[in-house]
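Hi P.,

Sorry for the delay on this. The queue was packed all week, but I finally got your sequence through. Input first:
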Amino acid sequence: MDLEVVREQWEMQGAVPTGYATALAEVRRAVALVAAASKALLGEAGASLDWLADARAFATPVVAGKSGFRLALAPAQLLLQVTDADGKPQHHLALAGQSPADAWRWLGEQSAALGKPLAGSPASGAAFAFGPEAAFEDIARSYGNAARALLCVRALAKTDEAVRVAPDALHVVCGVAFGGGQSVGLGYAPGDAECDEPYFYAKPCPLPAYDADALGELEGGGEWKTDGSWFGCLLRRPDWVWYDAEQLQAGAAVSFLDSCIDATRALVEK
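Then the structure:
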């Protein structure tokens, strides 16, 4: 995916909407079900998820049953889905009002019908709640944009590493190796204890020696993060949604991530 495609497909973002934290908590619970099903059906091959652009959904890798299929979660409507191998939705269950146990039962019925029984029942807890709608839509929009930006930077970096979703943290991630055991992890996070707003980031691994007063310049409004539990590059949501056009927001995200590769490579190659 090149930058022009990212600019064309980018979905406009603004300030974090009211109800975002509550919506994100519900999406996390729902994604946890899909992730548990993924590992139950695929073992370690199902440890990470994909983002399906057309379905706007978190999804398992393809499961080989009677025909290839995926189990997915579309956050904009909080829908569980069964898709075909290409990611086209075939069946869905609206999670609002359903308990996790109900949702797991439905996933089991769907996968069994496709020739892959789903054992166990890890699901418990209160019924899912949906609303406000704008917050769930914002989550879908954010993950779609993040996946596009990372796919573009992956192509620019000419790396074979896939863009995947780490379900526990709900990060979209991709790695770039520098050689000699050195690499940088690029990603998008929905917010956490250290940064309560969504952000793009880059984390060199292993941690290099650095002089905080002599770090290279980052593009797109990014900054270096030198405090807290991790060191790396950070682009906070206000710094890309400040732009009032899709093309400019996309450019800020991609240019930031791309500049992180050069900036962190310079550190580890010293």
